[in-house]
Amino acid sequence: MAPPKLYQNYDYDCSRASFITIPLGTAGGLDESNLSSFLLTKKGSNVFIALDAGTIWAGVSQFISSSSKCSRFFDITYPSWATTVDQKVAWFIRNHILGYFIGHSHLDHVQGLIESSPEDYLSSIAFDFKPPINNGLLQILRSLLSPAQQQQSNPSPTILQKKSIIGLPYTINAIQTHLFNNVIFPNLPSFGRYEYFTLDNTVKYNLIDLVTVNETQKSSMKGQFPNNIQITPFELCHNDIMSSAFLFQDMTTNEQIVFFSDTGVPSGNYNCDWKEKINVVWRNIKIDKLKAIFIESSFTSNTSDSQMYGHLRPKDVMALMEPLLMKSQQTIPRTTSLRHVKLIIEHIKPLANQFYSRLSLKQQIFKELTDNNPFNINVIIPQQGEPICI
Ligand SMILES: [Zn+2]
Ligand SMILES: [Zn+2]
């Protein structure tokens, strides 16, 4: 008997969605072409931020190769010279990814950024393409130029060519010291490719302040993504290192999305209370406005604590839902169901050894999550390159 298709619960009806995510990488190891990363944007925009960056190139390639999905959701125009998939991937990365939120410094969350970085640069020559391209970062850049500048060939705005790498101090220090350090990889940020933004734990930021534009340019971008989004970072425990969560809030609708990088049950004694760190995030959630939680479920529920190394199982994820309802900012009368929330499961660690179940690992994890789901949260196992409306 064929195993049941348990996790194909994708909803392509985006009519009521506010945000869209494109999973660029969904697994927690082994396959270097599918490591943790998600693009996020507001519906209607075609400019994205990346949430972790384990895999960039292969995920974008998977997404744009499925041209019907791509064109259904987004207005993407390629230069006339971009005829191969690789040329299109490079263009998409250059013109449509605004910056990178990195939750922690493990290689499976940063290696895509490092490896695509040589192509991750929007040259001012792009202003002179014929026919002109009027979407993505180029559209933002054009709207920021004065009429006189718009007439010039090659106006060379210094803005937005530098993309942002954003995170808490522990993460940014690790990337600076150990990755872009001219030993492991060329120090591209020092060559003007990237700008680091080091965030303070639990401080609220405007997303637009984390992009390299000046005050006048910011005011001219009012109303469009990435303006009008507030972001709050939170420290998380990840065995012996610090990880992070990022809470995004639309300042017009108050709708929220929370992204957790790796976190969970330690193997060993570390002075970090992982559950309490997550409770701090929950206290900042407006429960009726929460649209999605991105969180890991690396292993199946029968994995022992000694094998967890700072990760989560379905039983740990579901045990976080009651504290979410208890500690979040509640409605009157109280919200008691999570039916309105998408639970997007990241970082399922592939098993290369014999598996005990007739279900695939993804099906098994989906089953364990949905078998014990008292608050009816909408569990989604993402697929690389398949957009999810939020
Ligand atoms: Zn990790
Ligand atoms: Zn990881």
UniProtKB/TrEMBL annotation:
Family matches, as SUPFAM superfamilies: Metallo-hydrolase/oxidoreductase
Keywords (A to Z) from UniProt: cAMP, Hydrolase
GO BP annotation list: cAMP catabolic process; negative regulation of glucose mediated signaling pathway
Xref: Pfam families: PDEase_II
InterPro entries for this protein: Pdiesterase2 (IPR000396), RibonucZ/Hydroxyglut_hydro (IPR036866)
GO molecular function, one term: 3',5'-cyclic-GMP phosphodiesterase activity
Family: Belongs to the cyclic nucleotide phosphodiesterase class-II family.
Protein name in the entry: cAMP phosphodiesterase
The gene coding this protein: pdsA
